[in-house]
Amino acid sequence: MRHSITTTRPSATRWNAASEVTAPTCVEFLKWALAFLGLSWPGFRRVHRQVCRRVGHRVQELRLPDLAVYRQYLENHPEEWVILDSFCRIPISRLLRDRDVFERLGSEVLPCLAAAALRRGARELRCWSAGCASGEEPYSLGILWARELSARYPDLSLRIVATDIDEHLLERASLGRYSKSSLREVPTSWLTTAFVRGAGWYEVRPEYREGIEFVAQDIRQALPSGWFDLILCRNLVFTYFDPELQIRTASRALSVLRPGGALVIGLKEALPEGIEGLEPWVPELRIYRKSGGS
Length: 294
Fold this sequence. Notes:
17% strand, alpha/beta, 39% helix, disordered N terminus
């Protein structure tokens, strides 16, 4: 559930969030709080200033003097943890992020999965984009399929279920509208055929939105239904979750990955010890295959 936070202008005697963004007190607070949320401080090390700004505004809103008192407030008001958890979402994405990954998906992984689907008589290839943010990843995958693979597999359609906990981001995803900076890895041929250009933005054409469903869902608590041939779980679970939550979440996600299906994680991520049933497919690009398929 998304919480709307209204900020107020800080008075001269109130805690100044801007000056405390990089303060050791904020880092100390986050190291304490993240552990209770099942999150990992190393994953937030480079982005903690963004979280600190949000926390600072919240402290101002509650008219609390400092983080020490906010810590006491959390201990006395369990419902506040839901709001703090919402501050720890880092939606950093762009279309074709890590372009080499999508190129390998198009040249090798998707054709292999498509051939397997046709052998078992399936009419669609099902993909799950977990933590899809504003939709950059599922649109990248959908455009890739439509432009480069759909003609080779006319009897097979691509279905993408894109999930994220943040309903505001999903509203933006449904618009399919992006600034030029979000498209810096997109080739010119894509820009001219898959997007409509506006005043300072590009919008995904309707025909490239087909088969994509956006669902509000917390990966820690729920999974989309059905089997999936491909799961994209990049720069979320294996970056921001602590090891125990990583294993628990990944194990549940793998339970809906079809044998022989592919799991893709972030290029700077690593699978934790204790994850079973996966074998390297394209290890340098963090692409894995679930054991048991042909």
